[in-house]
Amino acid sequence: MDQLARPALPFSGHDAVEAYLSDGYDRVVGMSSRFAAAICARLLRLQTEEGLKGPIAEIGAFEGRFFIALAHALEEGEIALALDIFSWPDPGVEQRFEANCDRHGIGPERRRTIKGDAGAMAPADLLAQADGDRLRFIHIDGEHSRVALGRDLALATACLAEGGLIVLDDMLHPGYPTLMVAVQAYLEANPDIVPLCIIDRETIVGATKFVLCQRTWFERYQTRLLDIFKDFVWPLGADFEPHWCLVLSQDTRLAEIV
Predict the structure, then answer these.
(1) What pLDDT score does 8 carry?
(2) What is the reported pLDDT for 157?
(3) Which of 13, 14, 56, 148 has its CA 20 to 30 A from that of 68?
(4) Chain centroid, CA 127 distance in Å
(5) Helix boundaries (H) for 143-193
(6) Could you tell me the CATH number of the domain that includes residue 157?
C-alpha cells in the first residue's frame, strides 16, 4: 500500500517514535506493523505517566524494526534489552540488528544485545542484564511454537514489574494457529494476568498482538486506553470468556446486518 494512502496512526506520544515511524520503520526488515508500534510506544508513555519506569525487553528482536520503536519511547536512563538467537535466517542478522539500531539513533548506551535462547534463560539471568530491575514492558516475538511461547511467557511473567505489560506478537495468525492454545493455557494457569487489549492486524504479515497486564491494573489501564485510543476502539471488544477487553483497530466498522 502506498504510504500516502495508509490509514491514520494513533499518536505514539514521542517525537522520536513519530519520526522513525514516518521515515525509517519500513526500511528496517521486519514483520510488525506501524499501527502496533505506535500503540505500544503510547503504552510506554502511559506507563511513564502512571509513575512506572525501568527497562524493557523484546524476545525475538530480529533486525530491530519493532525494537527501535520501543527504545525511542523510553525515558532518559532507561534501557532496552534485545534477546535473540541471532542465527536466523543467517549469522549476519546480529550485525544488521546492531547497524540498524545505530543508524536510527539507538546507541549502545541505550540497548543491550543478548544472544541466546530466551527459553533456556533463567529469570535471574535476564534480570541481571537489566541491572536487577524488573521489566515494565516485554514484547514476545520469538519462536512460534506452543512450547517456545509457553517458556517465553513463563520467563516474562517471572521478570515482570508491578504494572508491567506483556505483548504477544502474531496472535490469530493463519500461519501459527496453535499459538492461541498456549495463550489460553497460560491464562488459565495465571489468573492474576488478563488480556488488556487486542491490537488488530494491519496485514497478515503485520499480525494481531495481545497485550496482557496484571488483573489489579486492568481497570486503571482500560480507563486510560478508552480515552487515548477512542478513535480506534472497535465497539464490540473481545470476549475471553468471561473476561472482556478492548480491540484497537484501524477499521472500527461493524458488519451490516440486513
Answers:
(1) 85
(2) 98
(3) 148
(4) 19
(5) 146-159, 179-189
(6) 3.40.50.150
| Residues 6+ away with beta carbon under 8 Å from 218 | 194, 196, 245
What's the distance, CA 80 to chain centroid? 12
Q: How far apart are CA 74 and CA 41, in angstroms?
A: 9
Q: What is the DSSP string of 112-161?
A: EEEES-GGG--HHHHHHHTTTPPEEEEEE-S--SHHHHHHHHHHHHHHEE
d(CA 125, CA 121): 7
In this predicted structure, what is the pLDDT of residue 3?
Answer: 47
What's the mean pLDDT in 37-50?
A: 98
Residue 53, all three cell numbers: 519506569
What is the rounded CA–CA span in Å between residue 8 and residue 256?
A: 23
Question: 224: domain range?
Answer: 29-248
Domain-located, residue 14 = no
